[in-house]
Specification:
single chain; 255 residues; globular; 10 helices; mainly alpha
């Protein structure tokens, strides 16, 4: 009865389809507007929550919303990845200077932040797996979301041990591989395709410890140099920046 009462308007009539979808569109707009405000205020956990609301509405994200979704999770995670590195450094310093109790405190703090990091990764891949990847309407969208899915499994693997690390690494491998297959439908120098190759190669080098495979992935991606002219000016700039990162990594890996 309560559900029925909520569905009926104040006049006793059912709301029209226009009213229903109008209110849904307003809710989406509200979530995105609040996400923009949170981003400017650098309150990325709240931005992440607002973009989760937008994703859960069910409608595909625009390119701007897609980028906002990515930025919200990336920034929320980045500060925690930095915090973990700092805590590790402090623990090492305290151990070197003979203060085991302080080392224990630093490692305890590291563990707390890693729990938050894992929660963010889990939320990101859940939204991607359940909503965004299955509903991707274009090869560009699908590649973008699969790249992001691979990234968050990679981040989870970086700070995990044992079976948890192995499982996250396997899922990252599967997501990146699916992304590379989807990216084949994009232009060779498309920035998203190149960004996927960059992140996949970093994963191969840092997590899988397969440096030769990482080198192959990077070299293959850099063959797109001859296709930069196929892109619009802004996309050319983005592609060239990513290619420079690929080249920098190659120089390190081939030393």
């Amino acid at each position: 009865q309560a559900i029925f009462a909520q569905a009926v308007g104040a006049s006793g009539s059912f709301p029209s389809l226009h009213q229903h979808f109008g209110s849904a569109a307003m809710a989406e707009e509200k979530a995105v507007t609040l996400a923009r405000v949170a981003e400017r205020a650098e309150r990325f956990d709240e931005m992440r929550g607002f973009m989760e609301e937008r994703v859960m509405s069910g409608n595909p994200l625009s390119n701007e919303e897609r980028d906002m979704f990515s930025a919200a999770f990336k920034n929320a995670l980045s500060e925690r990845r930095h915090a973990v590195r700092v805590a590790v450094g402090v623990a090492q310093l305290e151990e070197a200077e003979g203060r085991p109790e302080n080392r224990g405190l630093a490692l305890g703090y590291k563990s707390k932040v890693e729990t938050e990091l894992t929660e963010i990764c889990t939320k990101a891949v859940t939204l991607l797996d359940s909503h965004l990847v299955p509903k991707a309407a274009t090869a560009e969208d699908k590649t973008f979301y699969l790249k992001m899915q691979g990234d968050y499994y990679r981040y989870a693997a970086e700070f995990a041990d044992g079976e948890a690390r192995r499982s996250s690494a396997e899922k990252a491998t599967a997501a990146y591989a699916s992304g590379m297959a989807s990216a084949a439908e994009l232009l060779a120098a498309h920035p998203i395709r190149l960004g996927l190759a960059l992140n996949y190669s970093v994963f191969q080098h840092e997590v899988l410890k397969e440096t030769q495979e990482a080198v192959k992935t990077a070299i293959s991606a850099l063959e797109a140099r001859n296709h930069l002219g196929d892109l619009a000016d802004q996309d050319q700039n983005d592609a060239m920046l990513t290619m420079q990162l690929l080249e920098d990594n190659l120089n390190l890996w081939q030393q």
